[in-house]
Design goal:
Elements lengths: L17 H15 L12 E6 L3 E7 L12 E7 L25 E12 L3 H16 L6 E3 L19 E3 L3 H11 L25 E6 H8 L5 E3 H13 L2 H8 L1 H7 L8 H9 L1 H15 L7 E4 L2 E2 L2 E2 L2 H22 L16 H41 L24
Parallel strand pairs: 1-7, 5-6, 7-9
Antiparallel strand pairs: 1-2, 2-4, 3-4, 8-9, 10-11
Helix pairs in contact: 1-10, 3-9, 4-9, 5-9, 10-11
Length: about 425
């Protein structure tokens, strides 16, 4: 234990479930987009998060669709501030599923699922285990389609690396990743997605893809709004590119640093990360197309922010906790008969709630400001790298932050 200046009790701390993280990220995204109170899901944002250990999927379910099972549902009560402009004159096609929301309070119900083991790092480790297991049953070398042709793992990284031959085949890599999604697991629901989880019959509204979804799309040079087909095309290019072409385009600055000509990150770490973009693009396409059953023309918004506001589940949690505190205080003030117990100079709101809400909002703003400063610093470093690549003539830049991969030459052999 350490001494801190803030009032804290052990009972106030808890580890949230993945579904709660998905819910709070959804709240943060739609709060930033001013669509938190939209009743029609077509005017809201769904949120996809690709972390290291798990993948979260959260979106509002249409009121005319069957209610998801309880284990795939999260509810939140927020004070009703104003109707969303899209809802003016709009009536739900069926009775609302709002159960116990009081007057002046809106209950929001979302579908959310956290697929543990399908985060980028966890899925890559599972892929490597399957390759090594296959290696143990064959006398010859095994081809790994998720590694660009010509890539050689750094010495000491894997003892069996010499027996695994880089294949650089995007289509074959997607097929391998599909096997990790558990699409053939027993399905106890009417419709299932990944690992036997319930999947609603329809997904409406724009999907915001954050974290490793965003980082991969940015590296591949995709625009902020791109289709699954565009992601697949970029994945084919990076998987089919010769390793020397990838290194020349993306690690030239680090090569100079390794010779003492500059100051940058270590070369080996960047090589390992660069080699994984074939796998990560395949994972994204497999998850969106086969796990969520979205069509190739579906347009995804790859971004970590909305309207310049960073989408952070911590901010969503602050909004949710504040809303819950306001609702509890309103119930205490009105009493069971709906009449005010007492009033005060603040217009009927207890000063303690005002202090609490102010403190939470200040903490959220400080966190967002700090994250924005870190993001700005990272962006400046990225831009410096990109400008160095462009001036050296190694990379033809186009619409993406990291330029285009269309200049890479695929190996002569057809992969």
């Amino acid at each position: 234990p350490c001494a801190i200046a803030f009032l804290f009790r052990d009972g106030w701390a808890e580890v949230i479930a993945g579904s709660k993280e998905g819910l709070y990220a959804w709240v943060a995204a739609n709060y930033a987009a001013d669509s938190l109170f939209a009743r029609d899901p077509r005017h809201t944002l769904g949120v996809l998060e690709l972390g290291g250990a798990s993948m979260q999927v959260t979106f509002k379910v249409p009121e005319d669709s069957p209610a998801p099972p309880d284990e795939f549902t999260e509810h939140i009560h927020v004070p009703t501030v104003k109707p969303h402009p899209s809802d003016l004159g709009w009536a739900p096609p069926s009775p609302s599923r709002t159960r116990d929301a009081k007057p002046g309070v809106t209950e929001i119900t979302v579908y959310t699922h956290s697929a543990l083991g399908l985060g980028q790092e966890a899925a890559f480790e599972a892929h490597e285990r399957s390759i090594r297991a296959e290696l143990g049953t064959q006398l010859s070398d095994v081809s790994d389609p998720c590694v660009p042709v010509g890539y050689v793992p750094p010495r000491g990284l894997k003892s069996d690396g010499s027996k695994i031959r880089p294949g650089g085949n995007f289509t074959a890599c997607v097929d391998r990743v599909r096997a990790l999604l558990g699409l053939h697991d027993p399905c106890p629901h009417e419709r299932c997605g990944m690992k036997g989880s319930y999947l609603p019959p329809s997904i409406r509204g724009e999907m915001l893809a954050t974290e490793n979804f965003f980082y991969t799309a940015r590296f591949l040079g995709l625009p902020e709004r791109a289709t699954i087909a565009q992601m697949a095309g970029a994945g084919e290019r990076v998987c089919g590119a010769e390793w020397r072409s990838l290194v020349a385009a993306h690690l030239g600055a680090n090569k100079r640093a390794a010779r003492g000509e500059g100051d940058d990150e270590t070369f080996e770490e960047d090589e390992a990360s660069l080699a994984r973009y074939c796998f990560s693009s395949s994972l994204i396409v497999a998850a969106l197309s086969h796990g969520l059953k979205l069509p190739p023309r579906a347009k995804i918004r790859f971004s970590n922010s909305v309207g310049g506001v960073a989408v952070d589940w911590a901010m969503g949690a602050a909004i949710a906790f504040t809303a819950a505190a306001v609702e509890r205080e309103e119930e205490w003030l009105l009493g069971p008969d709906g009449r005010h117990r007492w009033t005060n100079p603040f217009g009927g709101v207890d000063w303690r709630i005002l202090v609490f809400v102010s403190a939470v909002l200040v903490l959220a703003l400080v966190s967002a400001s700090s994250r924005s400063r870190r993001a700005a610093t990272l962006e400046r470093r990225i831009r410096a790298k990109v400008q160095a690549w462009g001036s050296a003539g190694r990379l033809t830049r186009s619409e993406g932050t990291f330029g285009s991969l269309t200049s890479f030459k695929s190996p002569a052999k057809d992969h």
